[in-house]
Design brief:
mainly alpha
Protein backbone atom coordinates (compact mmCIF):
# COMPACT_ATOMS: atom_id res chain seq x y z
CA UNK A 1 0.00 0.00 0.00
CA UNK A 2 1.37 3.42 -0.96
CA UNK A 3 1.70 6.23 1.56
CA UNK A 4 -1.15 8.12 -0.14
CA UNK A 5 -3.48 5.12 0.02
CA UNK A 6 -2.44 4.45 3.62
CA UNK A 7 -3.26 8.01 4.66
CA UNK A 8 -6.57 7.96 2.77
CA UNK A 9 -7.59 4.67 4.39
CA UNK A 10 -6.69 5.89 7.85
CA UNK A 11 -8.53 9.17 7.35
CA UNK A 12 -11.66 7.21 6.46
CA UNK A 13 -11.14 5.15 9.62
CA UNK A 14 -10.96 8.24 11.82
CA UNK A 15 -14.05 9.73 10.14
CA UNK A 16 -15.89 6.46 10.69
CA UNK A 17 -14.94 6.52 14.39
CA UNK A 18 -16.21 10.11 14.59
CA UNK A 19 -19.60 9.01 13.22
CA UNK A 20 -19.74 6.23 15.83
CA UNK A 21 -18.94 8.72 18.61
CA UNK A 22 -22.04 10.77 17.86
CA UNK A 23 -24.19 7.68 17.23
CA UNK A 24 -23.24 6.16 20.57
CA UNK A 25 -23.57 9.43 22.47
CA UNK A 26 -27.14 9.69 21.20
CA UNK A 27 -27.61 6.00 21.95
CA UNK A 28 -26.98 6.61 25.66
CA UNK A 29 -29.53 9.43 25.79
CA UNK A 30 -32.21 7.62 23.77
CA UNK A 31 -31.70 4.37 25.69
CA UNK A 32 -31.98 6.16 29.03
CA UNK A 33 -35.30 7.61 27.85
CA UNK A 34 -36.37 4.05 27.08
CA UNK A 35 -35.28 2.96 30.53
CA UNK A 36 -37.59 5.57 32.05
CA UNK A 37 -40.55 4.43 29.93
CA UNK A 38 -42.86 1.43 30.17
CA UNK A 39 -40.76 -0.42 27.59
CA UNK A 40 -38.78 -3.35 28.96
CA UNK A 41 -35.12 -3.97 28.02
CA UNK A 42 -36.39 -6.97 26.06
CA UNK A 43 -38.68 -4.69 24.03
CA UNK A 44 -35.79 -2.40 23.10
CA UNK A 45 -33.58 -5.33 22.13
CA UNK A 46 -36.41 -6.73 19.99
CA UNK A 47 -36.86 -3.39 18.22
CA UNK A 48 -33.12 -3.20 17.62
CA UNK A 49 -32.54 -6.62 16.07
CA UNK A 50 -36.00 -6.85 14.50
CA UNK A 51 -35.83 -3.60 12.55
CA UNK A 52 -32.14 -3.94 11.66
CA UNK A 53 -32.60 -7.51 10.41
CA UNK A 54 -35.67 -6.50 8.40
CA UNK A 55 -33.81 -3.64 6.68
CA UNK A 56 -30.85 -5.90 5.91
CA UNK A 57 -32.90 -9.02 5.11
CA UNK A 58 -32.04 -9.25 1.36
CA UNK A 59 -28.31 -9.00 2.10
CA UNK A 60 -28.58 -11.46 4.99
CA UNK A 61 -30.36 -14.05 2.82
CA UNK A 62 -27.81 -13.68 0.02
CA UNK A 63 -24.78 -14.05 2.31
CA UNK A 64 -26.35 -16.96 4.17
CA UNK A 65 -27.21 -18.74 0.91
CA UNK A 66 -23.68 -18.26 -0.45
CA UNK A 67 -22.13 -19.57 2.78
CA UNK A 68 -24.43 -22.61 2.80
CA UNK A 69 -23.73 -23.35 -0.88
CA UNK A 70 -19.99 -23.18 -0.18
CA UNK A 71 -20.42 -25.22 3.03
CA UNK A 72 -18.45 -22.49 4.78
CA UNK A 73 -19.27 -23.53 8.35
CA UNK A 74 -16.29 -21.63 9.69
CA UNK A 75 -17.55 -18.29 8.34
CA UNK A 76 -21.05 -18.93 9.70
CA UNK A 77 -19.63 -19.72 13.14
CA UNK A 78 -17.61 -16.50 13.02
CA UNK A 79 -20.74 -14.48 12.22
CA UNK A 80 -22.63 -16.34 14.95
CA UNK A 81 -19.93 -15.42 17.48
CA UNK A 82 -20.18 -11.76 16.49
CA UNK A 83 -23.97 -11.92 16.81
CA UNK A 84 -23.67 -13.34 20.33
CA UNK A 85 -21.04 -10.92 21.62
CA UNK A 86 -21.61 -7.83 19.46
CA UNK A 87 -25.40 -7.84 19.37
CA UNK A 88 -27.16 -9.83 22.09
CA UNK A 89 -24.28 -9.90 24.58
CA UNK A 90 -23.95 -6.13 24.24
CA UNK A 91 -27.52 -4.93 23.77
CA UNK A 92 -29.38 -6.97 26.39
CA UNK A 93 -27.10 -6.09 29.34
CA UNK A 94 -26.84 -2.42 28.34
CA UNK A 95 -30.60 -1.96 27.88
CA UNK A 96 -31.13 -3.71 31.22
CA UNK A 97 -28.64 -1.35 32.84
CA UNK A 98 -30.55 1.73 31.69
CA UNK A 99 -33.51 0.59 33.80
CA UNK A 100 -31.38 1.05 36.93
CA UNK A 101 -28.62 3.59 36.26
CA UNK A 102 -28.38 7.03 34.56
CA UNK A 103 -26.94 7.78 31.13
CA UNK A 104 -23.71 9.16 32.62
CA UNK A 105 -22.97 5.75 34.13
CA UNK A 106 -23.41 4.14 30.72
CA UNK A 107 -21.10 6.69 29.16
CA UNK A 108 -18.43 5.90 31.74
CA UNK A 109 -18.77 2.13 32.05
CA UNK A 110 -19.82 1.14 28.51
CA UNK A 111 -18.16 3.58 26.12
CA UNK A 112 -15.39 4.46 28.54
CA UNK A 113 -14.93 0.83 29.52
CA UNK A 114 -14.62 -0.47 25.95
CA UNK A 115 -11.13 1.05 25.36
CA UNK A 116 -9.87 -0.40 28.64
CA UNK A 117 -11.48 -3.81 28.02
CA UNK A 118 -10.13 -3.85 24.44
CA UNK A 119 -6.61 -2.97 25.59
CA UNK A 120 -6.64 -5.60 28.35
CA UNK A 121 -8.10 -8.33 26.13
CA UNK A 122 -5.65 -7.51 23.32
CA UNK A 123 -2.83 -7.69 25.84
CA UNK A 124 -3.75 -10.97 27.52
CA UNK A 125 -5.36 -12.79 24.58
CA UNK A 126 -3.30 -11.50 21.64
CA UNK A 127 -0.11 -10.33 23.33
CA UNK A 128 -0.60 -6.76 22.04
CA UNK A 129 0.63 -4.85 25.06
CA UNK A 130 -0.03 -1.08 24.93
CA UNK A 131 3.30 0.73 24.75
CA UNK A 132 4.68 4.23 24.56
CA UNK A 133 2.30 6.80 23.18
CA UNK A 134 -0.63 4.39 23.08
CA UNK A 135 -0.27 3.54 26.77
CA UNK A 136 0.13 7.22 27.66
CA UNK A 137 -2.99 8.35 25.77
CA UNK A 138 -4.97 5.43 27.20
CA UNK A 139 -3.91 6.41 30.74
CA UNK A 140 -5.02 10.02 30.16
CA UNK A 141 -8.41 8.89 28.83
CA UNK A 142 -8.91 6.50 31.76
CA UNK A 143 -8.06 9.32 34.18
CA UNK A 144 -10.84 11.38 32.63
CA UNK A 145 -13.25 8.47 32.87
CA UNK A 146 -12.42 8.14 36.56
CA UNK A 147 -13.11 11.87 37.04
CA UNK A 148 -16.57 11.56 35.48
CA UNK A 149 -17.11 8.33 37.37
CA UNK A 150 -16.39 9.95 40.71
CA UNK A 151 -19.00 12.59 39.98
CA UNK A 152 -21.54 10.11 38.65
CA UNK A 153 -21.17 7.42 41.26
CA UNK A 154 -21.08 9.87 44.15
CA UNK A 155 -24.76 10.48 43.38
CA UNK A 156 -25.53 6.79 43.02
CA UNK A 157 -28.05 5.13 45.26
CA UNK A 158 -30.57 2.31 45.47
CA UNK A 159 -30.05 -0.37 42.84
CA UNK A 160 -27.85 1.64 40.49
CA UNK A 161 -24.98 -0.78 41.11
CA UNK A 162 -27.03 -3.46 39.31
CA UNK A 163 -27.16 -1.25 36.23
CA UNK A 164 -23.43 -0.61 36.54
CA UNK A 165 -22.69 -4.35 36.47
CA UNK A 166 -24.84 -4.71 33.35
CA UNK A 167 -22.90 -1.88 31.70
CA UNK A 168 -19.54 -3.50 32.48
CA UNK A 169 -20.72 -6.80 31.03
CA UNK A 170 -21.88 -5.04 27.86
CA UNK A 171 -18.53 -3.24 27.48
CA UNK A 172 -16.54 -6.47 27.77
CA UNK A 173 -18.85 -8.23 25.32
CA UNK A 174 -18.46 -5.47 22.71
CA UNK A 175 -14.68 -5.43 23.18
CA UNK A 176 -14.59 -9.18 22.47
CA UNK A 177 -16.68 -8.68 19.33
CA UNK A 178 -14.44 -5.86 18.11
CA UNK A 179 -11.28 -7.92 18.52
CA UNK A 180 -12.86 -10.91 16.77
CA UNK A 181 -13.98 -8.74 13.83
CA UNK A 182 -10.44 -7.48 13.45
CA UNK A 183 -8.83 -10.91 13.87
CA UNK A 184 -11.11 -12.52 11.28
CA UNK A 185 -11.00 -9.51 8.90
CA UNK A 186 -14.79 -9.47 8.53
CA UNK A 187 -16.13 -6.84 6.14
CA UNK A 188 -18.32 -4.14 7.76
CA UNK A 189 -21.60 -4.33 5.84
CA UNK A 190 -21.87 -8.14 5.55
CA UNK A 191 -20.91 -8.46 9.22
CA UNK A 192 -23.65 -6.09 10.37
CA UNK A 193 -26.22 -7.86 8.16
CA UNK A 194 -25.28 -11.31 9.47
CA UNK A 195 -24.87 -10.12 13.06
CA UNK A 196 -28.38 -8.70 13.24
CA UNK A 197 -29.99 -11.43 11.15
CA UNK A 198 -28.58 -14.24 13.29
CA UNK A 199 -29.36 -12.31 16.48
CA UNK A 200 -32.99 -11.95 15.33
CA UNK A 201 -33.24 -15.68 14.65
CA UNK A 202 -31.84 -16.49 18.09
CA UNK A 203 -33.66 -13.84 20.09
CA UNK A 204 -37.07 -12.98 18.63
CA UNK A 205 -38.72 -16.40 19.15
CA UNK A 206 -37.59 -16.40 22.79
CA UNK A 207 -38.82 -12.82 23.20
CA UNK A 208 -42.25 -13.53 21.72
CA UNK A 209 -42.81 -16.76 23.67
CA UNK A 210 -41.22 -16.17 27.05
CA UNK A 211 -40.04 -12.62 27.85
CA UNK A 212 -42.10 -9.83 29.46
CA UNK A 213 -43.20 -7.07 27.10
CA UNK A 214 -44.97 -3.72 27.46
CA UNK A 215 -44.61 -2.78 23.81
CA UNK A 216 -48.38 -2.53 23.36
CA UNK A 217 -48.61 -0.05 26.27
CA UNK A 218 -45.97 2.38 25.01
CA UNK A 219 -46.92 5.58 23.12
CA UNK A 220 -46.40 5.32 19.36
CA UNK A 221 -43.89 8.20 19.32
CA UNK A 222 -41.73 6.37 21.89
CA UNK A 223 -41.83 3.16 19.85
CA UNK A 224 -40.92 5.04 16.66
CA UNK A 225 -38.03 6.86 18.37
CA UNK A 226 -36.59 3.67 19.85
CA UNK A 227 -37.19 1.63 16.72
CA UNK A 228 -35.56 4.18 14.42
CA UNK A 229 -32.58 4.92 16.62
CA UNK A 230 -31.90 1.45 17.97
CA UNK A 231 -32.70 -0.48 14.82
CA UNK A 232 -31.19 1.85 12.22
CA UNK A 233 -28.76 4.34 13.77
CA UNK A 234 -27.26 2.19 16.55
CA UNK A 235 -27.45 -1.29 15.01
CA UNK A 236 -26.74 -0.51 11.34
CA UNK A 237 -25.01 2.88 10.95
CA UNK A 238 -22.86 2.68 14.09
CA UNK A 239 -22.17 -1.01 13.50
CA UNK A 240 -20.92 -0.53 9.94
CA UNK A 241 -18.80 2.51 10.75
CA UNK A 242 -17.31 0.94 13.88
CA UNK A 243 -16.30 -2.17 11.96
CA UNK A 244 -14.72 0.00 9.25
CA UNK A 245 -12.76 1.98 11.86
CA UNK A 246 -11.82 -1.29 13.55
CA UNK A 247 -10.37 -2.68 10.31
CA UNK A 248 -8.56 0.48 9.17
CA UNK A 249 -7.09 2.04 12.33
CA UNK A 250 -7.24 -1.00 14.62
CA UNK A 251 -9.39 -1.93 17.63
CA UNK A 252 -7.23 -0.06 20.15
CA UNK A 253 -7.41 3.29 18.35
CA UNK A 254 -11.03 2.85 17.35
CA UNK A 255 -12.10 2.07 20.91
CA UNK A 256 -9.89 4.81 22.34
CA UNK A 257 -11.61 7.44 20.20
CA UNK A 258 -14.89 6.23 21.67
CA UNK A 259 -13.62 7.41 25.05
CA UNK A 260 -15.04 10.76 23.89
CA UNK A 261 -18.55 9.37 24.32
CA UNK A 262 -18.72 9.60 28.15
CA UNK A 263 -17.97 13.31 28.03
CA UNK A 264 -20.48 14.04 25.27
CA UNK A 265 -23.09 11.93 27.06
CA UNK A 266 -22.48 13.68 30.39
CA UNK A 267 -22.83 17.12 28.78
CA UNK A 268 -25.92 16.21 26.72
CA UNK A 269 -27.60 14.57 29.71
CA UNK A 270 -27.74 17.92 31.55
CA UNK A 271 -30.34 19.68 29.34
CA UNK A 272 -32.04 16.58 27.92
CA UNK A 273 -32.31 14.30 30.95
CA UNK A 274 -31.84 16.78 33.77
CA UNK A 275 -28.71 15.05 35.08
CA UNK A 276 -26.06 17.12 36.86
CA UNK A 277 -22.47 17.87 35.74
CA UNK A 278 -19.87 19.09 38.23
CA UNK A 279 -16.55 20.86 37.72
CA UNK A 280 -14.84 17.50 38.36
CA UNK A 281 -16.82 15.92 35.53
CA UNK A 282 -16.00 18.81 33.19
CA UNK A 283 -12.30 18.32 33.93
CA UNK A 284 -12.79 14.63 33.19
CA UNK A 285 -14.34 15.46 29.84
CA UNK A 286 -11.28 17.52 28.94
CA UNK A 287 -8.92 14.68 29.93
CA UNK A 288 -10.86 12.12 27.90
CA UNK A 289 -10.87 14.42 24.88
CA UNK A 290 -7.11 14.96 25.18
CA UNK A 291 -6.41 11.24 25.53
CA UNK A 292 -8.61 10.29 22.58
CA UNK A 293 -7.11 12.96 20.32
CA UNK A 294 -3.53 12.05 21.29
CA UNK A 295 -4.22 8.37 20.67
CA UNK A 296 -5.84 9.08 17.32
CA UNK A 297 -3.31 11.45 15.78
CA UNK A 298 -0.22 9.44 16.73
CA UNK A 299 0.40 6.79 14.10
CA UNK A 300 1.38 3.39 15.50
Amino acid sequence: MTTENYNSTHRSGYLAALVVIFCWSGFNIVSRLAGRSVLTPFDIAALRVGIASLILLPLFVRILWQALQASDVRLLLQYLSIAIFGSLGYALPVYSGFAFAPAAHAGVLVNGGIPLATALLAWFALGQRPRGWGAFSLAIAISGIVMIGLQSFALAGGNQWIGDLFFVFGAVSWAIAGLLMRRWHLKPIPTVAMMNGLAAILYLPVYVLFLPSHLHEAPMNAVLLQGTYQGFVAAIIAGIFYNHANLTIGPQKASLMLALVPGITAIAAVPILGESLSALAIFGVLLITAGAILGAVKRG
